[in-house]
Design brief:
Blueprint (H helix, E strand, L loop, with lengths): L8 H9 L3 H13 L4 E2 L2 H13 L5 H12 L4 E2 L2 H13 L5 H12 L5 E3 L2 H6 L3 E3 L3
Parallel strand pairs: 1-2, 3-4
Helix pairs in contact: 1-2, 1-3, 3-4, 4-5, 5-6
Amino acid sequence: MKFSGSLDTNAMLRLLINDIPSQHEAVKELLAKVNSQLVVADTAIIELVFVLERYYGFSRQQVTEATTGVMQLKEINSNRTLFEKALPMYVNHPALSFEDCCLSAYAALNEAEPLWTFDKKLASQSTNAKLLAV
């Protein structure tokens, strides 16, 4: 499959937040004119979640809704399977970082369980993470 390029975190933020109208419009125009999907890397989605929560003060539920909305655009190609598993965990386990939720989801999706960790919080909150003995 041939893609029309990729989007970075900043472009997705401008699309969602519309705090810089000219950049918001530029991303909208790009989405309207592409003839195939734009790829969004896992790293960009993880960074998007971090920035929405930490910088813009979105609740975890708001972050999930915004992120899901971007990934559902027909012009966007992202790792929906991973994030559809990680985002509910992120909402339901506020002590865990989104990165930890992604690690847990990745382990489950790849049938690579348990997720071995030294992180006691992750092991206690994730059904597939196990503490590595020291």
